[in-house]
Amino acid sequence: MKYYVPYEEMYDKLKDFHTRTGHGGNVKLRLALMNKYAIPRPAIEAFLSTCLSCNSKKPVNRKLVIKPIISEDFNERGQVDLVDFQSNPDGKFRWILNYQDHSTKFLSLRPLESKRAIEVARNLLSLFLTFGAPKILQSDNGREFVNAIITELKTLWHDCVIVHGRPRHPQSQGSVERSNQDIENMLRAWMVDNNSKKWSIGLEFVQFQKNCFHHRVINRSPYKALFESDPKIGLTTSKLSSEVLQKISTEEDLLMYNGYSDDPHSTIKMITSRCSLCGNEVMVEINSASAIVCDLCKNNENIIQSRQQGLKGLQNAAEKMLKISNLKVTLFQVEDCVIVPVPKVDRGPSDCEYNCHSYGTKK
Hints:
Distance between the termini: 69 Å
Shape: globular
Strand order of the largest sheet: 5-4-3-6-7
Number of strands: 11
Mean pLDDT: 79
Helix content: 40-55%
Largest sheet: 5 strands, mixed
Structural class: alpha/beta
Low-confidence stretches: 356-363
Number of helices: 12
Strand content: 5-15%
């Protein structure tokens, strides 16, 4: 069921959902609206053209990709990076920790006082003890930085064994840079919308928005890719209209508007049976002809299916990036002189940004 929005209320409704998505673009806004409200696409495009925060965003420079990374499951590879907010400190906080699972794109954000390895490791430890630790930890801040974090993690958690990934991998670098830029744009938009400079608080809202709305690569939200469930904001995300939500104050009201009934004379008869997969007891209808599977097993099967679809999205994105890179890159000959940018973490105080090298051999 969808609600049609009157012309007079359309701007306010679009602004509300646009803020919820963290000033997401056309696709994110349409997908956020489509399950509940019917608003024509031209109206959405006209609204987005008037948003100052969105129009001030800088385009992301897409990097060339030679060998894309593909992670098949959750916690195969974790990516950690730091976002510099020293120019806009929030009390003692001056940095942002951005940790992202490469497969599901599920990210976690934490405010930091400094970029010391011990502080980064303690925040990562809290995440790993909640979601589990990845096999590979990768960062574009340099291998020494990751080694220091892994050493600190090993001191804090002796049973945890993690290896460091290749630093500054082209695909991961582009992915993390886009994520960092999204975080900065969404955080600054949150500060403007809420007239607040406490970005350490807004960071939690930005994390929720990034995880709960559509991701282009995996073609679903990171939240759904991880849990196979749409995120819920209380009754706000239900099918009930805003007018009905204002009238609900008790559970009895909710049951009444949802049409539930506790009629003891109901003709539906239930019996106790066992799940065919795990053996747990479940309540089913007497005349149920389908295989008996409990809700937990159904959810587990849905999660596996969702991860497989996310993997297909990663593979399709990798193929697309390779095609674009192959069109941009020309074939080099032996002894050709090329200009290669040197990452900041590998550059000394007196080094220039570009170094010239002669690649290849005479063989």
